[in-house]
Design brief:
Strand content: under 5%
Order of helices and strands: HHHHHHHHHHHHHH
Mean pLDDT: 89
Largest sheet: none
Distance between the termini: 25 Å
Number of strands: 0
Family: Belongs to the multi antimicrobial extrusion (MATE) (TC 2.A.66.1) family.
Radius of gyration: 22 Å
Transmembrane segments: 41-61, 97-116, 136-157, 169-188, 200-219, 250-273, 285-308, 328-349, 361-383, 390-410, 416-435
Low-confidence stretches: 1-8
Shape: globular
Number of domains: 2
Keywords: Cell membrane, Membrane, Transmembrane, Transmembrane helix, Transport
Organism: Pseudonocardia acidicola
Pfam families: MatE
Helix content: over 70%
Structural class: mainly alpha
Length: 453
């Protein structure tokens, strides 16, 4: 079992961040990569099933997008307990998050079955595409509790500074599903397969395997815990209420992100196909690089939470300064790479000359934001590790309301095109940069001690 790094002085070595960030990156990338495999497999069925998968996939993705507090909130709480040398209590935090995940997952399953048809019809064409989306969702929703158990499992394991086992679990489940998906969709020999529904079954299979591995890890921790510090399996309402309070702030923060990026795509579509295509190319590259920066943020969460849990407020501030420098270096490196690949990279996504001519409008905003994003993501991780979710909620909502949304709708009103959209996204990031930098410098977040309840 790993132990928290309690070094009282000296710089945080890059290997300490890399030890946690490197295994976390495949976990973050596994789902987007599997979606690509799923899309390729279903795409061979034709345009209608692929469109149905696109509609259903967007809807199902909201489960993970809006309920990530089960990972991030659990990490910060478990990390403090781990830093205080209370591993059993840190794992018990994971048990409570798992109970919460199962409860919320069952609600998502029940409500999802009811609302899937009208929502799919609203997003689809009301015909064959909507029907395909509903049939996929009705099966895939049975995996919702498993997805949330996986989020909780990632959370407590990151909190005890173990990012290797989650990587193995997630890759095992997604690898199995990637192998099963072509067989279940297209069949074998005389069997024609289940078509689009086979994709949903493959998803549920993967989610069940991964959730089972995380549950087994909890039982192993319980068996290995010392008699004087057992891992408690019973639900603790007070702890679950505290996790829900943290979750509320993180969900509101996530909604601010969703409002920004959905609005950006909606407005880009008003400027024509070339604009929305160019926007999509640059936005997907943004999503890709954010996975790497998010891995660094996860490492910052675990290290800062452990430092504060062990009473080391000054150590936590030193970790924050060092991680911020790493984020700046990484973001600057991304800026240099994407600037150098400007001529080559967009052509991998499209050969349309009109789209390629439009890409540069967004591209240089994207490049310029890389160092900003490196610092913002790092400090997000620091503040999440400290449990400062209320500040992150408020600052993100303000950045969306004061920076992004006015500019995005002004760009539509005054016909500013992609330049206006990406100016809004840049303003959103700059306001967040100012907010998290001032908060980090204030030190108000660095409150030592373990979690309450």
């Amino acid at each position: 079992m790993s132990t928290p790094d309690r070094a009282a002085d000296g710089p945080l070595p890059a290997r300490a961040v890399l030890r946690l960030a490197a295994p976390a990156l495949p976990v973050l990338a596994a789902e987007p990569l599997y979606v690509l495999v799923d899309t390729a497999v279903v795409g061979r069925l034709g345009a209608v099933p692929l469109a149905g998968l696109a509609v259903a996939g967007v809807l199902f993705a909201q489960v993970t997008n809006q309920l990530t507090f089960l990972s991030y909130g659990t990490t910060s709480r478990a990390a403090r307990l781990h830093g205080a040398g209370r591993r059993s209590d840190a794992v018990t935090e994971g048990v409570q998050a798992t109970w919460l995940a199962l409860a919320v997952g069952l609600v998502v399953l029940a409500v999802g079955q009811l609302v899937a048809p009208p929502v799919a019809r609203a997003l689809g064409d009301g015909g064959a595409v909507a029907d395909g989306a509903v049939s996929w969702l009705r099966i895939a929703l049975f995996g919702a509790p498993m997805v949330l158990v996986t989020l909780a499992g990632n959370g407590w394991m990151r909190g005890v500074q173990d990012t290797v086992r989650p990587m193995r679990y997630v890759l095992a489940g997604n690898g199995l599903s990637a192998l099963a998906c072509p067989f279940l969709v297209h069949g074998w020999g005389a069997w024609d397969g289940w078509g689009l529904e086979g994709s949903a079954v493959a998803n549920v299979l993967a989610q069940t395997v991964v959730a089972a591995l995380f549950l087994a890890a909890l039982f192993r921790e319980r068996a290995a815990a010392p008699a004087e510090a057992p891992v408690r399996l019973r639900p603790k309402p007070a702890v679950i209420r505290a996790q829900l309070g943290l979750g509320r702030d993180l969900v509101l923060r996530s909604l601010a992100f969703q409002a920004c990026f959905l609005s950006a795509t909606a407005v880009a579509a008003r400027f024509g196909a070339a604009s929305v295509a160019a926007h999509q190319i640059v936005l997907q590259l943004w999503v890709f690089q954010s996975l790497v920066l998010d891995a660094v943020a996860i490492a910052a969460q675990a290290l800062v939470g452990a430092a504060l849990g062990g009473g080391g407020a000054e150590r936590a501030r030193a970790v924050a300064r060092q991680v911020t420098r790493y984020g700046l270096v990484l973001g600057s490196g991304f800026a240099a790479v994407f600037a150098a690949l400007f001529i080559v990279l967009p052509k991998l996504f499209t050969a349309d000359p009109v789209v390629l001519a439009t890409v540069p409008v967004a591209w240089w905003f994207f490049v310029a934001m890389q160092p900003v994003a490196g610092v913002v993501f790092a400090l997000d991780g620091v503040l999440l590790g400290a449990g400062d979710a209320a500040f992150l909620r408020t600052s993100t909502l303000l950045a969306a309301a004061a920076g992004f949304l006015p500019l995005i709708w002004a760009s539509l009103l005054f016909d500013w095109g992609l330049a206006g959209i990406w100016t809004g996204l840049t303003a959103f990031m700059l306001i967040r940069l100012i907010a998290v930098t001032l908060r980090a410098r204030s030190g108000h977040w660095a409150i030592p001690g373990v979690v309450r309840a």
